[in-house]
Amino acid sequence: MDTLKLKILELMKEDARRSADLIATMLGTAEDEVARAISEMEADKVIVKYATVVNWSKVDDEKVTALIEVQITPERGHGFDAIAERIYLYPEVKSVYLMSGAYDLLVEIEGSSLKQVASFVSNKLSPIDRVLSTKTNFILKKYKQDGIIFEDQADDHRMLVSP
């Protein structure tokens, strides 16, 4: 991938609302060149979605998010991919990652309650062939996501004392 496209991606990752005109100005290039590069990246599925980062704790919404560590036995000829696909097709599943370390997959799910998440793990995830074990971790509070800090920094109101 060329340097211009990488620079465009970095700027769009910071703020996807930036126009091709603004990006062109920031990079010192022509607007039509930026627009063409963005269109190519959309067609090539490099840019797959424009999304909004929401601080759900500010909204009266009681979603429960869990990160589930899953140990599996890879499937002959398909490795981890076939099992990962089976898992990511569930609508509750927001993300699935192949990991190195103590477990194989990290599955992020969202539910309306702890009970719903527990039901997903016990009725849908654990019974899958080749799933050896699961460990569920509930997210209690998000401090930072996608480079965005959610909590305002508390100002230090202590009095300055000098010798």
Automatic annotation (TrEMBL):
SMART domains: HTH_ASNC. This is AsnC family transcriptional regulator. PANTHER family: HTH-TYPE TRANSCRIPTIONAL REGULATOR PTR2, TRANSCRIPTIONAL REGULATOR, ASNC FAMILY. Residues 1-81 form the HTH asnC-type domain. Keywords: DNA-binding, Transcription, Transcription regulation. The lineage of its organism: Bacteria, Bacillati, Bacillota, Bacilli, Bacillales. GO terms for molecular function: sequence-specific DNA binding. SUPFAM superfamilies: Dimeric alpha+beta barrel, Winged helix' DNA-binding domain.
